[in-house]
Amino acid sequence: MMDKLTKIFATNFKFNESEEKVNVEKVLDETTVDGVVKYIKSGKCKNIVVMVGAGISTGAGIPDFRSPGSGLYDNLSKYKLPSPECMFDIGFFRENPDPFFDLAKQLFPGSFNPTPSHRFLKLLNDKGLLLRLYTQNIDTLERIAGVPDEKLVEAHGTFHTSHCIDCNKQYTLEWMREKIFGDSFVPKCEKCKATVKPDIVFFGERLPQRFFMLAEEDFDKCDLLIIIGTSLTVQPFAGLIDTVSPKTPRLLINKTKCGQSSQLARLLGMGSGLDFDSENNYRDVLLLEDCDKGCQQLADALGWAQDLKLLCAPEGRREWL
């Protein structure tokens, strides 16, 4: 059915993907990792924006949300939730916050160390190349790795601060840690006695204002977009890939290919997505690899292997270093 609709639109509106012409300046010599490396080394690349997801944290031992038998949702089966997403629903949270705080205890900052992927992000900043890091993760490992607060946009919120759900009184990470690992488990506001929630974005809640304030300006300035460890399925985060300039190269480091839009979606103006396979591709590069190994490969090619090794040293030598 989708193929039929696509053909109808292509015929009636004279859209034909194979006949599209690229009329923008090509920045990369070749759409390969080597092409990206040459571009970075040329000195023309000065404002790298990075988008990251859960894939950069799996190497830290943080269980993902959906893997059968090991996902965080599976571990909470004892609560017999109507659906796994309930624990991130603010209405459900008000009635029964226990499942969320059980999860929070498993994920709480300080229980895990940054991965080589996180260290690579710090290295990009140390090299003066990181304009901004946009993360979907709530584990704060980017902060722990040393990415400065001003360079970080935590799109889906963070454990770093918390607020009372009624009076909005703010609490620190240390305060929250003491409560959920102490006798309280479900922390209560010292002012009004309502539940205090970490500043994680729940379903139906708006993303942090910082996300919207910075995204437009950052993606206009971006001269290289690096996407690591995200499936690019959650909006509005995923849509950011379509907001960079048409000439801006985009590198995806991930175990699976993602972020590609269907021809029909493109015809309907729903975003062009990443384009790895067409003959018209002039800027999108795919590195199908584990996030940590992919970042290591990029660091090696850039001549930064020793720098990354030193940043990883406090957490112990990794087998691929």
Task: Give the structure's gist in a few sentences.
Zn(2+) binds at residues 164, 167, 189, 192. The protein is an alpha/beta fold and 321 residues long.
Explain what you see.
By secondary structure, this protein is α/β, with parallel strands linked by helices. It has two domains: 33-59 and 113-156 and 207-312, TPP-binding domain (Rossmann fold), CATH 3.40.50; 72-110 and 159-200, SIR2/SIRT2 'Small Domain', CATH 3.30.1600.10. It is built from twelve helices and nine strands. The chain has helices at 2-12, 33-41, 72-75, 90-95, 98-107, 116-126, 141-145, 173-180, 209-221, 263-267, 291-302, 305-312; strands at residues 48-52, 130-135, 152-154, 157-164, 170-172, 196-200, 224-228, 250-254, 284-288. It has a six-stranded parallel beta sheet, sandwiched between helices. The protein has a three-stranded antiparallel beta sheet with strand order 5-4-6. Helix 10 (263-267) links the parallel strand 8 (250-254) and strand 9. Helix 6 (116-126) packs across helix 12 (305-312). It comes from Oppiella nova. Its cofactor is Zn(2+). NAD(+) binds at residues 54-58, 64-66, 136-139, 230-231, 291.
